[in-house]
Amino acid sequence: MGSAFCPSCGQRSQLGRPTNQTERNQRAVSIDSTTLIFQVISVVSSILFTVYFHSLGVEPAWSAYAVALVPTILVFTPQIIGALAFGGRTDDARLTLIACVSGLFIGLRSVSFFLLDSRIPDNGTLAGAMFAGLAGFGVVATTYPRNKSLHEWIADDWKNIRIIWGLIAAYFLYQTRSELFGEFMIFTAGSIAGGSSTEVIQVALLIAVPFLVAPLRQSVAFTIGAFSLASWGGNMIMNTATDQLAWRPNPVITLCCVFLTVPWDEFFSSEQTTF
Questions:
Q1: Does residue 146 belong to any structural domain of this protein?
Q2: For the segment 62-118, what is each residue's pLDDT rounded down to a tens digit?
Q3: Where is the composition biased (Polar residues) (predicted)?
Q4: Which phi and psi angles does 184 have, rounded to 5°?
Q5: DSSP 209
């Protein structure tokens, strides 16, 4: 392999070896038409869920789901924020990771419905919502950076005190799911339908988030916090009818995610971030 001298930078580089910028560009995850289709279908699923519960005529139920489903719009973060902050670029790692985690929660939501009843529902709207929600996993498949090795995800300062926030959030989710499900509906980011085994994945995420390198850590924490905050709103609407207060797990999870998103300047930096 030969070498060449660069007159502009005064350095000699190896021919045939990509520069760091080229490598970063090759590792970027772009939002193509396939991802867009999955994004649209997954959001349609959320709309259909709300329409179905509205058709039942039970005011608290459909209102709670309408509020809890609001953060599903985060699946379009690369297109929305990319257009506003990055001149139309959709391959910023922070944005694609938010879309990826949002797609994961949308997919888990549909799976949780399937787990509540092994039979396909007779209602076409509900069945459509359940199957369309699986498109969220398609968003995950097309946005997750498969060429990023495990050690590249882990921050050097993983022994930082922030690990405590992940453990606290995971504990409250697990404890609430184990002890209180059956008394009232538990709205979480991983399972809008109520308590189900899909929440195990969110527990694992909460434990893993503190170990992630910045600003990827902030992107995942922000997404979990946004879903949990909206889910808390749905929880409160449901609990108004049953006179029960839902101070956990979602408010605790959201607060822990706020701490995990610090420092904010890394998350909101205008500079391009690649995987």
A1: yes
A2: 887 888 788 999 999 999 998 888 888 888 999 999 999 999 999 988 888 887 777
A3: 10-25
A4: -160, 160
A5: G
Provide the 10 A C-beta neighbour count for residue 249: 29
Is 134 domain-assigned? Answer: yes
CA 272, CA 275: separation in Å to the nearest integer? 10
Burial of 181 (0-12, 13-18, 19+ CB in 10 A): middle
For residue 78, what are its two tokens?
């690369």
User: Which residue did the predictor score with more confidence, 75 or 248?
Assistant: 75
Q: Which two tokens stand for residue 117?
A: 């009843």
Residue 128 lies in a domain: yes
Q: Please tell me whether residue 12 adopts helix, strand or coil conformation.
A: strand
Where is pLDDT greater, at 170 or 3?
Answer: 170
List beta partners, residue 154.
212
Please report, rounded to a whole number, the percentage of residues in the chain having pLDDT higher than 90: 39
Tell me the average pLDDT of the chain.
Answer: 81
How many domains are there within the chain?
1
Q: Is residue 136 part of a domain?
A: yes
pTM for the complete prediction? 0.84
Q: Which domain holds residue 131?
A: 120-176+197-240
| Separate counts of helices (H) and strands (E) for the chain | 12, 2
Name which of 189, 271, 173, 179 is nearest 234 in CA terms. Answer: 189
Integer Cα distance of 69 and 189 in angstroms: 10
Q: Residue 178: what residue type?
A: S
Backbone angles phi and psi of 109, in degrees to 5: -60, -45
- Residue 23 is inside which H or E element, if any? helix 20-27
Helix (H) or strand (E) holding 104: helix 93-116
For residue 9, count other CB atoms closer than 10 A to its CB.
Answer: 8
Per-residue tokens: 33: 């038409």
